[in-house]
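Our platform keeps sequence and structure together, in a single record for each protein. Nothing more is needed to write down the fold, since each code stands for a local backbone conformation. An entry from our holdings is shown next, in its original layout:
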Amino acid sequence: MLLYFILALLLVAAVFLFYGFTIAPGRVRVKNYQLDPDKTLGSFAGKRIVFFSDIHLGPNFTAEHLNKLCRLILSQKPQLILFGGDMVEEKTDLTSESFKAAISKNLAVLSDFCPCYAVLGNHDVETLINRHYTAEVIAAAGFTLLQNSWAELDDLALYGFANATHDQPVFVDKAALAEDSFRLLLCHEPGFVGKNKPVPGNSLYLSGHSHGGQVTLFGLPLILPYLGRRYVRGCHQLRDNSQLLISNGVGTVHIHARFCARPDIIVLDFPDKN
């Protein structure tokens, strides 16, 4: 009986390992959110934004995986695409020009479809080589990099913070923007947002970084990164009219597996005028 029990445990463990390392990382889901009616209703009324983060390009997330992801993003028919940082990881081959050209070409399909903006993640800036590589790919792909800066998008106030782990995020409000105007903010690390709450009023922060725990004990995260431990996944109310929305990200890092933390992209729909 003991032998059968041990064999059953080994079989279950093998199934979990197979699922976590080979199946779960590819099960990217689309998470839809409808913004509250009190958010901006100007030129973005009735329009859609797609937010994705943490692709961690490398041996476990190749140019082919990126191509599939970009097709999924485009199938949502967005009017704006936002990237939340962490394009690379420690195993990304930064010396391969062919790989660099392939990922730039895949991402350029997105910017050919609609405006695209990005911020940098902690892995993107942890070395000067990573920083230069990521900035060059983002530029070649036609994305606009935001680092403590605003984007000019008609009446939509979009702000991107510098990376909170290695740089210095600073918020300087947009000139002539009313206090109760809606602000959409990109910040890679949700822990910085939750602790500092840099923007008062009508605002929505979009973050990644935590991977939703990536490998969890049926939802309980086992390992979480710095600035990704208090706010891990989902939507969080920060102030009366300020929210933080966290994506589980798409790729993996360190342990290239997922369990009870499915990768995702986020779709934001702006309410139409009535």
Remarks:
- The chain has six helices and 14 strands.
- The chain has a mean pLDDT of 92.
- The longest strand covers residues 29-34.
